[in-house]
């Protein structure tokens, strides 16, 4: 730790002491320090360069089971003392919550270096090399005749550090580096413009795919949509391409297994623990200790050690994702998910994505969604969709301006094939999957 | 309690433009009772950033050849009170403070920011921002001349920032109790009151120096109802750039908000899935502003116009909609969630016509898009905080009233779909959009019949504008938070009840 880091750790610890002296039964202080560099490029011009460093402080204060929280970007001692005083006063006005409180301190067994989420090479990247990467990822795409326009390319590098101290005796720190590179494109003619792109992030320079690889993927994703059209409303099998599995299926599921949703009965998975809710092919983990993972950390937002949690095993719901508070309310232990999901993924299966497509006589290869139609309380899905139409096991033509709908419970049960193409490149990831049937809304007069 | 003293609202030279308020909870205590006179004085007194320091930092920002620079000083206090499980479960106070430094060079932007507005940190951030320009004549910043906003569109008579926590708690409790008591099938209620006061001072190299103090309040309730195995969630909200008296108005009381959430949750218990396919659609006034915001507003924002990525970039002066359609932006409408005296670049807000009787007549601009296109900025440069650059954003997006009564609009549909509330919407530059309807109704023989859940509306803005064919004479406002380029912005959008000839409704086939 350098002198500045020592100072931030000492600041967190001293504020915990101050809070205790002023009457907090329990207090937790978090300091986050971030420095980032961000370049945006469009049509081969550097459009924006951003560089900044910030420090943010947050706290939770408990007074006899009553909670108040606060945050400040002003880290002067005078201000912070007043923020603590105010929080204690506000907590006293709240209601006693028997479940409120800090976790017991547990030892932290892993470091950022062991978990491979801190890469000193990120600090050494020159601004020129970052700008060059953003320019290149766009230039490769613009050289392709099918691409009409860039919607922008970017390169981001972030170095973040966390300090957490609490009145139960916990004091820990963690740090992480992130690099990301990506680009978006438009293609198509007249009123039928299509857009898509590709973006990759990693915790180390070596793990970040090359601009060439990212550009190729971005171009392909847009170009294949050219000439997209609607199809008739119908019920068909839907193949989720890997990013769609992560975005729609797992992103939505993560909301539904969150302790807050379950406790509030705003999840279709209430009272479903131990029950078979998905097909045998569905096994899902949340792994906070995944080496190099985008969501990896040694401890969560309240100092509980992270772990690998089996969320669903061959279709059986095994665990919710809990922090200390919702763990206590639901009479379970925290799973180290006070910060939400860590690295949440559907375990890969044995099918080749190409074979999955081949297995479909008529259906949709879902490549992207647009819109918000996901209701955790019921599991209902109804969202705009893009993709490729499959006929007799082959991609026939691109589709857009359609909707897909169904219920997540039916989708999980209806998973018939799982691909072997899992790439753990984001905090939520999954392979290609085939779902027996979902509803497509598109052309044609309404029936029924 | 004792720790938090009650304070009356202190008026400074009337409630005129630019008057600063004191924060009963935090700010005035920090100032040890000394209230800032007005405007930029706040940042001088509180953080020691004098006019001279500002001018010096602007000079550093322009030192590498930039042709424009601005500094955005922000100080914001956000309070949130949450009631759940029959108790006030949590309250929070969030203090945002810092300065964003931007340099423009042609179409390029250099940007740095710091949460610590010392001369050293600001100089460092200014040097970072300056680096976008590598050469060119070095401009000197003009002398700063302080001006005040030319209007006052916030309701500042009894601001929340001065209210004791007890008053906030009382509002939240009332809303919570109303939702819970509405029906015994309501099993869960969460109510929260989020209020903020944002103080900004904007200075730029052209000599502008202007400040604003902006309140923002939102009371929100979600209710979950259960019957047998069926469970649904409804929500209600009210608020704007207002103070406490707002919640005494008919339809805006905490009780009204709680009831709206509970009623929706209970009604959804008997809701059916929509009939999928193309059909006539009537959009109710309550929240359908989200449609105008997404489908019309976003493609009219300046970046997409000068970058030519918007589907409408080259359609100025063309008929793009049915002649019954008039759509405009108006941040000067008083007290709405998107109302602002000045935008985040210090430009005075104004009404901007976008579509007039079907013809495309204007776009939304910030400084950057305006200078590139050679037009006047029209007050639409907004930023989520000092940590991000301003971008073109909407404020209050309005579909002008027509003449039909809402009932008459519905009567024209034999078989179709009526949308009442939404979970949200999304649009691409290409004009393709999607809306998720939380609750709607089937229209059968000109009447609303069964409630419908789980519907999605999908289409393109080019088509929907042409298909809007009948506009009602009522008006209601959607209170939203819009996300764009990773920045969120508080917006409102108002519409009457209106009919779309034909639209694709998604649901079970």
3D architecture notes:
- The complex is a heterodimer of chains A (about 450) and B (about 500).
- Chain A is α+β, with helices and mostly antiparallel strands and about 450 residues long.
- Chain A folds into 2 domains: about 5-225, PmbA/TldD superfamily (PmbA/TldD fold); about 230-450, no CATH class.
- Chain A is built from 10 helices and 18 strands.
- Chain A has helices at about 5-20, 75-95, 120-125, 125-140, 210-225, 240-255, 260-265, 325-330, 355-360, 410-415, and strands spanning about 25-40, 45-65, 65-70, 150-165, 170-190, 190-200, 235-240, 285, 310-315, 315, 345, 360-370, 375, 380-390, 395-405, 415-420, 430, 435-440.
- In chain A, the strands form 3 sheets. Chain A has a 6-stranded antiparallel beta sheet with strand order 3-2-1-4-5-6. In chain A, strands 7-12-14-15-18 form a 5-stranded mixed barrel. Chain A has a 5-stranded mixed beta sheet with strand order 10-9-8-11-17, covered by helices on one side.
- In chain A, a hairpin with a 4-residue loop joins strand 4 (about 150-165) and strand 5 (about 170-190).
- With about 500 residues, chain B is α+β, with helices and mostly antiparallel strands.
- Chain B has 2 domains: about 25-215, PmbA/TldD fold, CATH 3.30.2290; about 275-340 and about 350-505, no CATH class.
- In chain B, strands 1, 2, 3, 4, 5, 6 and 7 form a 7-stranded mixed beta sheet that branches.
- In chain B, strand 20 (about 475-485) and strand 21 form a beta hairpin.
- In chain B, helix 3 (about 50-60) packs parallel to helix 4 (about 120-130) and helix 5 packs parallel to helix 6.
- The model of chain B is unreliable at about 1-40 (pLDDT under 50).
- Chains A and B meet through strand 2, strand 3, helix 2, strand 6 and strand 13 of A and strand 2, strand 3, helix 5, strand 5 and strand 6 of B.
- Strand 3 (about 65-70) of chain A pairs parallel with strand 2 (about 85-105) of chain B.
């Amino acid at each position: 730790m350098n002198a500045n880091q020592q100072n931030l750790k000492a600041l967190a610890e001293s504020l915990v002491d101050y809070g205790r002296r002023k009457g907090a039964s329990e207090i937790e202080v978090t300091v986050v320090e971030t420095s980032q560099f961000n370049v945006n490029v469009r049509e081969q011009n550097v459009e924006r360069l951003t560089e900044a460093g910030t420090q943010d402080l947050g706290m939770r204060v408990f007074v006899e089971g009553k909670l108040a929280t606060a945050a400040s970007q002003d880290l002067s001692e005078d201000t912070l003392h007043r923020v603590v005083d105010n929080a204690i006063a506000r907590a006293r006005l709240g209601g006693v919550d028997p479940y409120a409180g800090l976790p017991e301190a547990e030892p932290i067994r892993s470091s950022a270096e062991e978990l491979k989420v801190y890469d000193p090479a990120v600090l050494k990247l020159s601004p020129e090399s970052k700008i060059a990467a953003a320019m290149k990822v766009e230039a490769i795409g613009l050289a392709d005749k099918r691409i009409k326009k860039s919607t922008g390319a970017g390169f981001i590098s972030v170095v973040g550090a966390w300090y957490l101290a609490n009145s139960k005796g916990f004091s820990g720190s963690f740090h992480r580096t992130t690099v990301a590179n990506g680009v978006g494109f438009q293609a198509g003619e007249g009123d039928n413009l299509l857009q898509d792109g590709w973006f990759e992030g990693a915790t180390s320079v070596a793990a970040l795919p090359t601009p060439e690889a990212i550009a190729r993927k971005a171009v392909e994703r847009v170009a294949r949509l050219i000439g997209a059209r609607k199809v008739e409303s119908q019920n068909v099998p839907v193949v989720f391409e890997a990013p769609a599995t992560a975005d729609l299926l797992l992103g939505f599921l993560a909301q539904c297994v969150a302790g807050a949703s379950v406790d509030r009965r705003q999840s279709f998975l209430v009272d479903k623990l131990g029950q078979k809710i998905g097909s045998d092919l569905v096994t899902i983990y949340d792994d906070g200790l995944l080496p190099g993972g985008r969501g990896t950390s040694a401890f969560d937002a309240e100092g509980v050690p992270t772990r690998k949690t089996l969320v669903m095993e061959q279709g059986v719901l095994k665990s919710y994702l809990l922090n200390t508070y919702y763990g206590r309310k639901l009479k379970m232990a925290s799973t180290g998910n006070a910060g939400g999901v860590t690295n949440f993924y559907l375990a890969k299966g044995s099918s080749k994505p190409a074979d999955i497509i081949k297995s479909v006589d008529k259906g949709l290869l879902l490549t992207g969604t647009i819109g918000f139609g996901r209701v955790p309380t019921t599991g209902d899905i109804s969202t705009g969709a893009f993709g490729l139409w499959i006929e007799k096991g082959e991609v026939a033509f691109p589709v857009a301006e359609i909707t897909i709908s169904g219920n997540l419970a039916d989708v999980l049960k209806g998973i018939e094939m799982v691909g072997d193409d899992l790439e753990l490149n984001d905090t939520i990831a999954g392979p290609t999957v085939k779902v027996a049937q979902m509803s497509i809304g598109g052309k044609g007069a309404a029936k029924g | 309690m004792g720790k938090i003293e009650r304070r009356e609202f202190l008026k400074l030279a009337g409630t005129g433009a630019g008057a600063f308020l004191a924060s009963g909870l935090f700010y005035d205590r920090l100032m040890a009772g000394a209230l800032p006179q007005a405007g930029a004085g706040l940042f001088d007194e509180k953080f020691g950033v004098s006019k001279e320091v500002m001018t010096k930092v602007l000079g550093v920002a322009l030192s590498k050849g930039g042709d424009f620079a601005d500094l955005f000083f922000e100080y914001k206090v956000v309070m949130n009170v949450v009631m759940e499980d029959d108790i006030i479960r949590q309250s929070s106070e969030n203090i945002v403070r810092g300065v964003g430094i931007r340099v423009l060079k042609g179409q390029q932007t250099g940007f740095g920011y710091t949460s610590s507005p010392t001369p050293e940190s600001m100089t460092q951030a200014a040097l970072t921002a300056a680096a976008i320009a590598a050469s060119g004549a070095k401009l000197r910043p003009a002398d700063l001349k302080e001006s005040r906003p030319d209007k006052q569109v916030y309701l500042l008579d009894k601001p929340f920032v001065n209210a004791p926590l007890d008053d906030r708690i009382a509002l939240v409790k009332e809303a919570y109790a109303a939702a819970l008591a509405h029906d015994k099938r309501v099993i869960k209620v969460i109510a929260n009151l989020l209020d903020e006061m944002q103080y900004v001072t904007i200075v730029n190299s052209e000599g502008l120096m202007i400040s604003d103090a902006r309140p923002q309040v939102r009371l929100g309730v979600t209710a979950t109802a259960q019957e047998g195995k069926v469970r649904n969630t409804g929500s209600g909200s009210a608020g704007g750039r207002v103070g406490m008296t707002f919640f005494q108005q008919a339809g805006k009381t905490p009780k009204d908000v709680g009831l709206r959430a509970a009623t929706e949750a209970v009604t959804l218990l008997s809701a059916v899935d929509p009939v999928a396919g193309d059909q006539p659609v009537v959009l109710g006034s309550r929240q359908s502003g989200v449609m105008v915001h997404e489908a019309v507003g976003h493609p009219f924002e300046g970046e997409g116009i000068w970058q030519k990525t918007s589907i409408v970039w080259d359609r100025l002066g063309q008929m793009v909609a049915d002649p019954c359609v008039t759509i405009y932006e108006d941040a000067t409408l008083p007290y709405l969630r998107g109302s602002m005296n000045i935008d985040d670049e210090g430009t005075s807000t104004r009404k901007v016509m976008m579509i007039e009787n079907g013809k495309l007549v204007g776009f939304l601009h910030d400084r950057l898009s305006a200078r590139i296109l050679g037009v006047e900025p029209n007050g639409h440069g907004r930023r989520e905080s000092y940590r991000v650059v301003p971008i073109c954003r909407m404020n209050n997006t309005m579909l002008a009233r027509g003449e039909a009564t809402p009932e008459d609009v519905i009567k024209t549909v034999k078989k179709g779909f009526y949308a009442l509330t939404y979970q949200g919407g999304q649009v691409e530059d290409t004009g393709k959009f999607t809306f998720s309807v939380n609750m709607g109704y089937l229209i059968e023989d000109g009447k609303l019949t069964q409630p419908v859940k789980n519907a999605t509306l999908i289409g393109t803005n080019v088509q929907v504008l042409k298909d809007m064919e009948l506009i009602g004479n009522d008006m209601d406002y959607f209170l939203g938070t819009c996300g764009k380029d990773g920045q969120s912005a508080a917006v409102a959008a108002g519409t009457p009840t209106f009919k779309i000839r034909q639209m694709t409704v998604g649901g079970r086939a």
